[in-house]
Amino acid sequence: MSQQKHILLRHRDIPDIDRLDVYRQNGGFQAFQKALTSMTPADVSAEVKNSGLRGRGGAGFPTGLKWSFLPNNIWPHYVVCNADESEPGTFKDREIMERNPFQFLEGVMLCAYGVQANVAYIYLRGEFYQVAKELDRRIRQLEDAGLLGDNLFGTDYSLRLYTHLGAGAYICGEETALLESLEGKLGQPRLRPPFPAVYGLYGKPTVINNVETLTNLPPIIQNGADWYKSYGTEKSPGVKIFSLSGRVKRPGNYELPLGTTFRELIYTYGGGIIDDRPVKAILPAGASSAIIRVEEGADGGSGSVLDTPMDYESVAQIGSQLGSASVIVADDTINMAWLVEKTVNFFKHESCGKCTPCREGTYWMNHLARRINAGQADLEDIDLLQTVASQITGKCLCALGEFSTMAVSTGIRQFRADFEASVQKPAEEPEPQPVDHPAASADRAEVGR
Amino acid sequence: MNEIFSKHKEEVEQILAKYPGDFKRSAVMPLLYIAQREQGYVTREAMAEIAELLDISTTDVASIVGFYSLYYEEPQGKYHIQVCNDLPCAMRGADEYLKQVCDYLGVKVGETTADGLFTVEAVKCLAACHHAPMFQEMHGDRLVYHEDQTLEKTIAWIEEVRRQAAEQGSLSAGSQADSLGHERGEQS
After folding, report:
1. Residue B58 is inside which H or E element, if any?
2. CA-CA distance, A343 to A366, in Å (whole number)?
């Protein structure tokens, strides 16, 4: 398959771009030099704002606008890169950091200059230990090359980058929990307001951006906002990395313009479904998704949902959200009650325990979903599961509580027959009940189910 | 007296230098990784030493250890086999794969083999959904992804680890691993 030139996954076009000399031979750090020597921080921010770039971590918030919230009478400013990539179905940031690391680091540096920060932290999930080690090595290379440190390019601008490893907690991808964790505390979300733009890391104005978002910055500064807007749609400009997983023949990361349809992603790039079975459902934003129901024949024939463009607005219009574009595809071999149990089990495990509706609610949703799938439930338990989900909605400090209910409520609403079939199947042998109530155990490690 | 500091002075100082002087509590997680590297888990003594280095209470440090799933408070197998069986991996056979690995090693999820060499765990998404089934090997401060696994590939790796452990032989576990290895070899 012929691949178009990549803007983010450039290592697929240029071998060894993870080496500093190769990256520089291919235009690397020209954007950073251009910014420092011929643009003010305000110019950089304005360019990013004009590009229409939106946060790639999930929320899709306009990046330039986010930067503009930092007050100019409180100092220092900090930049924190969210490299905690943990949403089930998302594996794009890891590929960027491993294979095209200097473009990512240059993006962090441009962001830091744009908001006049002299220190930036890259917060990686603990499992990315090896990635962090490699980034540390590359940061030292940049220091040796005079691209990080004091008086960069003869200006009075100084910048230092540091990596910081988490230790296995999905919640730390939530930006205020991430800040708490970086401050050496439990990764639990803060009450907002104040927002991190005003009161962030160490109580100072802070910008938090995702890895992929930042990796867009060097080409935007180098080629300009108008060039960037030539990709994607009017309201969702640019390219996006779609992490495609589940029952497709060729799972993987695909960098495509925003507005590409589900059908193109799944059939043109993903090679279609294993055994050429029909698509049953799509989770476009990982385990946090509102499930999209797909009805169509095995040939991928007419089915308007598959022709929905994947941009922030269009996916919202069909009742879901694009999020971080971690597209999990289910075919007709998948029982949706099983799928829902998988998602709730994840959120039960990852609930930080701060808000009661989420801590208790995810526990009970997990319990009910388990019972339903083990054939040990009554039909009323399906409604009970739905009720518990609706009791969590809108009652938590952060989005995790909300996310935990998405697959449950959209799953039961659209695939009730699957749940009923699970309830009515012969009961499995009763298992010993695991002692895993969050209140009963401080250790959150998964040891048995 | 502070063993972590005296043994890893340079590394500890490098870590502390990353954060503003008023906020050295930020160093608690990196320091815990150093402590865990030593013994495979975080001891009470190490928690107290880290607390002393950062001017926080031992309870504060213990709460961090308890909250985050990559820190262990008890001795573990030398090698953690951490299989992701989250939704995307499970759609590609991770649950069956996990069961097969457990059966091969004769343990349940969460348990450690009798020779103390392997602990098998089910973990949450490791950002490798396109290479399922997969597991993460955790061994000392090594974290290695083993992707696109089949039971055969994993067995080959397990047996190689056992062979090396037997060769080192300094541990009493070594000879046990050797005999176990032979036993399994005959079966397969």
Report:
1. helix B58-67
2. 9
For A346, the closest of B67, B86, B127 (CB atoms) is: B86
Rounded to the nearest 5 degrees, what angle is found at the Cα of B34, between the Cα atoms of B30 and B37?
130
Question: In A, which residues are within 8 Å of B29 by CB distance?
Answer: 164-167, 181, 184
Rounded distance, CA A363 to CA A344, Å? 8
In chain B, residues with a C-beta closer than 8 Å to the C-beta of A341 are: none
Cβ-based neighbours of A203, under 8 Å, separated by 6 or more:
none
Statement: residue A2 has pLDDT above 70: no
Encode pLDDT of B119-138 as tens digits.
999 999 999 999 999 999 99
- Averaged pLDDT score across all residues of chain A: 93
Q: Which 3 state secondary structure label does DSSP give A92?
A: helix
Cα B24 → chain centroid: 26
Enumerate residues 6+ apart whose C-beta is below 8 A from A324: A56, A57, A58, A87, A90, A92, A210, A243, A285, A286
- For the stretch A116-130, pLDDT in tens is 999 999 999 999 999
> Does the pLDDT of residue A437 top 70, yes or no?
no
Count of CB atoms within 10 A of residue B50's CB?
29
Q: CA angle, A254 as apex, A252 and A258 as ends, to 5°?
A: 140
Which member of A91, A346, A444 has the closest CB to residue B128?
Answer: A91
Q: How far is CA A147 from the centre of its chain?
A: 29
Residue A21 has φ and ψ, to the nearest 5°, of -65, -40
pLDDT at B186: 33
- Cβ(A201)–Cβ(A179) below 8 Å: yes
A445 confidence band (pLDDT: 50, 70, 90): very low
Q: How far apart are CA A228 and CA A91, in angstroms?
A: 24
Inter-chain touch A127–B91, beta carbons under 8 Å = no
| β-pairing verdict for A77-83 and A206-210 | parallel
- φ and ψ of B15, to 5 deg: -65, -45
